[in-house]
Design goal:
The protein has 303 residues and is mostly helical. The chain folds into two domains: 2-248, ABC transporter involved in vitamin B12 uptake, BtuC; 256-303. The protein is 78% helix and 2% strand. It contains eleven helices and two strands.
């Protein structure tokens, strides 16, 4: 049990980079980017193939980062310059990346066993924690810069930011590129941790990323950028722990995990709504009692 929980935390830290990428498009830009399912595999493919070719593992991960950025840039260009709907541009890029990733890998599944690895001689937990902290702090600092503030403003009100002379096309392209760069980096790290990459490993990543974001925000809140990015990282870890615990239930199979993910997301979305409703009802009841009490005191004074 303890081993599975430790493994879940390790995977959660590696997936946290992907969740942070989804957070940028989903929450900051309000952009429904489905490129994630393809760029995750792109990162895994580049990280694996370059490592097998003799490239130092960490350098291969860096190239995976830039590969994801390139995929995100193309999605952003389709949307901003090609005037393609945001959702559709992500779908188009995701479909294109399926063939591109297969070209990079050369075959559907490429093992990494026996080759150099990012995690050789090091703890996955330690490296994952360091990378998650660096990515989280880096994003916190970035969102305080002029470019970061422009990115946040574009997601909040693109018309207003354009009225101030800002080029929202550039901020959207940059935001989607950064998002997919983090996603691809996560894919490369996951491939190294599993010692293999396959062309279908990115399927459903957008759902996992959204689940991590929603779970984190539901539990820890997202009033500030610092708190929001921390919530996303912790949400990724909690999701993997729930996933690991669900796998230990005898009547559940691996094929049921997508359904479990959907249930988790629904619960994470409904809980805050129920909490607000209960709080609102409690506040209304308290106010009613105060009004009745004041009316009683007023009536008593009149007598």
């Amino acid at each position: 049990m303890l081993v599975s929980l430790v493994g879940a935390v390790e995977l959660g830290l590696l997936y946290a980079l992907m969740a942070l990428g989804v957070y940028i498009t989903f929450r900051i830009l309000d952009f429904p980017d489905l490129t994630v399912d393809g760029s995750f595999t792109t990162g895994a493919a580049i990280g694996t193939v370059m490592t097998i070719a003799g490239t130092p593992p960490w350098l291969a991960v860096i190239f995976a980062f830039f590969g994801g950025a390139a995929a995100g840039t193309l999605t952003g260009l389709l949307h901003t310059k090609g005037k393609v709907n945001g959702l559709l541009s992500g779908i188009i890029m995701m479909i294109a990346l399926y063939s591109i990733n297969l070209r990079i890998l050369g075959k559907p599944n490429v093992p990494l066993r026996g080759e150099a690895n990012v995690f050789d001689g090091a703890s996955v937990l330690v490296i994952g924690l360091i990378l998650a902290v660096v990515a989280k702090v880096g994003l916190d600092m970035f969102f305080k810069t002029n470019m970061g503030l422009s990115l946040r403003a574009t997601g909040d009100n693109s018309r207003m930011i354009r009225s101030f002379g800002a080029n929202t096309d550039i901020t959207i392209i940059m935001g989607v590129a950064l998002s997919n760069a983090l996603v691809a980096c996560s894919g490369a790290l996951i491939a190294h941790s599993q010692n293999a990459a396959n062309n279908s490993m990115g399927i459903g990543m957008i759902v996992i990323g959204l689940a991590s974001v929603i779970i984190g925000e539901a539990i820890f809140g997202a009033k500030t950028i610092f708190r929001a990015t921390l919530a996303v990282v912790l949400g990724a870890i909690i999701y993997r722990i729930i996933y690991a615990l669900a796998l230990r239930v005898e009547w559940l199979d691996a094929q049921d995990m997508k359904l479990i993910t959907a249930v988790i997301i629904v619960c994470a979305l409904v809980v805050p709504t129920v909490r607000r409703a209960v709080k609102s009802k409690s506040t209304a009841k308290k106010r009613t009692e105060e009004v009745l009490a004041s009316m009683g005191q007023s009536g008593g004074g009149g007598r």
